[in-house]
Design a protein that fits this description.
By secondary structure, the protein is an all-alpha fold. It has 2 domains: 104 residues, Rna Polymerase Sigma Factor, Chain: A (Orthogonal Bundle), CATH 1.10.1740; 76 residues, Arc Repressor Mutant, subunit A, CATH 1.10.10. Helix 3 crosses helix 4. The protein is elongated and about 75 Å long.
């Protein structure tokens, strides 16, 4: 109930050009939109444009006396941004589905929940990777992120051959997995 009151206050603040309300909405939602756009063939600038358009649409809706928010504010903003971005991709020929049928495939709430869950998992994985220590962190980054082969990794890390590097990578991966799931289960 308190969250609903707070969101209504933010919408009223937006309608009244309250800088604090606008900043709060921006800080609470932009990273989510940036992540969505960047992960769907866009750039940081595209995300800023789409978010700005969504804020304008929300502002115009908030100006109306009859506007009532029937979902969470972040869900509303996400759905506007998603629609705007998919429409832009369609105009650029990078998206072929009809925009009207999007709600029939995945509801915005489900999509948003999945997105928030994935972001939380990435955060946990980043923490686990940073707590892994060296040389495991660099070895796994070399293999999975930099796409280095085992021969190169063996040479870079001073292993006698690629098989030894592969064994060490496996041990490091098991340690990372253990750290990840320990942190993941604590967060539940």
């Amino acid at each position: 109930m308190k969250a609903e009151i707070n969101e209504q206050a933010l919408i009223r603040g937006l309608a009244n050009n309250d800088t604090k309300a606008i900043e709060t909405i921006y800080k609470a939602n932009f990273n989510m939109i940036q992540s969505f756009v960047v992960n769907n063939n866009g750039s940081y600038d595209d995300a800023r444009d789409v978010f700005q358009e969504a804020m304008i649409a929300l502002y115009e809706k908030a100006q109306g006396e009859s506007f009532v928010l029937t979902c969470k504010l972040n869900t509303y903003i996400y759905s506007i941004c998603k629609r705007l971005w998919l429409k832009r991709l369609q105009q650029l020929g990078k998206y072929t589905n009809q925009i009207d049928s999007i709600e029939e495939t995945v509801s915005v709430e489900e999509d948003l929940e999945m997105h928030l869950r994935k972001n939380a998992e990435f955060t946990i994985m980043d923490r686990a990777l940073n707590s892994l220590g060296e040389p495991c962190k660099s070895l796994l980054e070399g293999f999975y992120i930099k796409d280095l082969d085992m021969q190169t990794l063996a040479k870079d890390f001073g292993y006698t051959n690629a098989d030894n590097a592969k064994n060490q990578k496996y041990k490091c991966l098991m340690r990372l997995k253990k750290l990840f799931f320990t942190q993941y289960n604590i967060g539940d």
